[in-house]
Amino acid sequence: MAETIDLLTAARRLTAAEGVLLLTHRRPDGDTVGSAAALCRGLRRLGKAAWVFPNEDLTPRLAFLLEDLLAPPAAQYDLVAAVDLADIPLLTTSAAQFAKKVDLCLDHHPSNTGYAAELLLYPKAAATGEVIYQLLRLLGVSFDLKIWEALYIAVATDTGCFRFSNTTPLSHRIAAEALEAGLDFHPHNRTFFEKKSKTRFLIEKRMLDAMTFSSDGRIAAAWIERDWLKEIGATDDDLDNLSTLTMTIDGVDCGIILTQEKTSSDYKVSVRTHMPADASRVCREFGGGGHPRAAGCTVSGPGKQAMEKLMAAAQGELARC
Amino acid sequence: MAETIDLLTAARRLTAAEGVLLLTHRRPDGDTVGSAAALCRGLRRLGKAAWVFPNEDLTPRLAFLLEDLLAPPAAQYDLVAAVDLADIPLLTTSAAQFAKKVDLCLDHHPSNTGYAAELLLYPKAAATGEVIYQLLRLLGVSFDLKIWEALYIAVATDTGCFRFSNTTPLSHRIAAEALEAGLDFHPHNRTFFEKKSKTRFLIEKRMLDAMTFSSDGRIAAAWIERDWLKEIGATDDDLDNLSTLTMTIDGVDCGIILTQEKTSSDYKVSVRTHMPADASRVCREFGGGGHPRAAGCTVSGPGKQAMEKLMAAAQGELARC
Prior knowledge:
The structure is a homodimer of 321-residue chains.
Chain A: E1 3-4, H1 7-16, E2 19-23, H2 30-45, E3 49-52, H3 60-63, E4 79-83, E5 104-107, E6 118-121, H4 128-138, H5 145-158, H6 169-180, H7 186-194, H8 198-210, E7 212-213, E8 219-224, H9 226-231, H10 236-239, H11 242-246, E9 254-260, E10 267-273, H12 279-284, E11 289-290, E12 294-299, H13 303-320
Parallel strand pairs in A: 1-6, 2-3, 2-4, 4-5, 5-6, 8-9
Antiparallel strand pairs in A: 7-8, 9-10, 10-12, 11-12
Helix pairs in contact in A: 1-4, 2-4, 2-5, 4-5, 5-6
């Protein structure tokens, strides 16, 4: 198990290092990429050699943050730090080589397994970006616009643009400072919170058409088949967070979305709940798990039957509460 | 024309008054109600008699802010102040009696017509709530949770939960302070930015199904008939901001939504554009008008033909840019 360290100790570790290699998590989001980018740039401003290890899952809309930061094969480093990475299986395939070599982990996930030698964990931070902000301040880094941009994206994406319940005063203070520094934040808000590809539009339309409600209206569920997704050219990016859409409907306390796997007739299930219903309890019945408000599992098809099984389990969970 | 005054002068006027009556605008939004509520509570904390004039358009989700603040018929006041109210026609029917009696106006709309005797206008503020915040600070008011709640709602609703381009550093700083003060902000975010009535869900579904795109994909348009809205029991609240949905689709530069009027075969048209296309130019062709990014007009039916006329006008505007 990792030794839990405080901000000052983490700052000392980074100060002592000459070269730092940063790891981001599988299917990277704005927080892991933004946090890594901000930390990498901050360390470089302190005169260090700092790199972000290439992440093969990186999508185009986040790639710009790492443009000049990606580690070349010959990169030299004496410290490996994981950013926003809660557990070893979340390392990408190419980064699996570092599984037992992570010196320092900077994170906000309460579920962090402590796989690193040392762990700086702020479980109440809305984003790892908030941890990085405090670390860079302690290190005396002068922030440039690219650091503000990376931190803004980290914090904004993990809080749903300051909408989710995890939003903290510091989330807003970082945004306030970023805007004061002159960050052109609105194009990022458009990209991450507004823009919808035509494909995504079609998927949402299909999902709304296919939506089934329990008789009391508390459960909303839908399933999507792979053949159709292939037909419209959908990517994984287009499928992101579909289940949160169900939760916007008034009266719905549990949303269930089933998406057929790429290479089998199984369905990947995403369950969302409002307090106090526990999504992870629903998914555990099918060998899955997750958080109280968001969980997942995999079930065999066909889609309609799978959905009905999930709805029955959700019904049970709602009855329990 | 109003005399333009600064923050200090506005604070002096309020300090000198013994009783203050606050006016909000027609079809009140979170900013006009939140600003009036915060100012009213702040003035009361300074020992003044302060009231908000009842607004007959007030919807249930904002009414709670004014619960104990509504002026009784016998309310005494020596200063009438309008909050977030840009022009005389925006007074509600019952408040029209004050048309020539507004002593002070606190606003952020660049279009403010200067109808009040004195005007404090911060055109770069994201919300009038930001003006009120600064005014209350200058007045030395100690903020309680109800003031924070009102200011948070004012700022959050006018910035689309900190998403729109008008968001300022102060928007975020007010939110940061409100959260630090212990405001339970998330239920408000759910109410204003997440929750969707079943009726709204059905309308969005229908709109997506009916959506027509121009061949280049830059125009998205749909029309909705009143009979169907009646059938599902839709209210005006359910129809709010439908046209902004079209603008989330990638590639769409102009969104047009036509909603049939309650009592005629005419259609109320709402047009939204991305830079540089000018929505008000499109609507002016049909005797309407508005802002460059958001405008409206009324056209005669039937819906399909009306939509096609609007799309042709939008085509012309896009070609001009």
